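for the recovery benchmark. tokens below, seq after
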């Protein structure tokens, strides 16, 4: 009996460790930049992942790394470790899929407006050097 509990605890902590690694895998991210875009109209958006999330008190990865099925968010599911362009294509590919650039803008601007904090104008995120 004790051996079964020990194995379950080891398994649980192993899963927790892997999950933690995935959640913090983007700590070196400094820009929102996708190879899906061949050319840029503006510089990539400045975005220091961990600093942003700490300041915004965002601890639920699924807020940004969402998963949709049949046009609805799947609660508790996350797309951590995937590129946004894995689902969102540069050009609209299906009737219910938001194009990549629109998805980025919609995700960020909607949250900034809702919280009444954060940049809203193009040049505030897409900073020219």
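predicted aa per position
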């Amino acid at each position: 009996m004790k051996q079964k509990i020990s194995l379950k605890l080891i398994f649980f902590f192993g899963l927790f460790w892997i999950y933690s690694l995935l959640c913090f895998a983007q700590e070196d991210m400094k820009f929102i930049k996708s190879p899906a875009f061949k050319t840029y109209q503006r510089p990539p958006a400045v975005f220091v992942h961990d600093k942003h999330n700490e300041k915004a008190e965002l601890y639920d990865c699924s807020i940004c790394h969402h998963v949709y099925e049949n046009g609805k968010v799947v609660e508790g599911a996350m797309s951590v470790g995937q590129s946004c362009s894995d689902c969102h294509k540069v050009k609209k590919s299906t009737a219910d899929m938001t194009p990549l650039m629109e998805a980025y803008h919609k995700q960020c601007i909607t949250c900034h407006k809702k919280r009444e904090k954060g940049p809203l104008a193009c040049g505030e995120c897409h900073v020219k050097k």
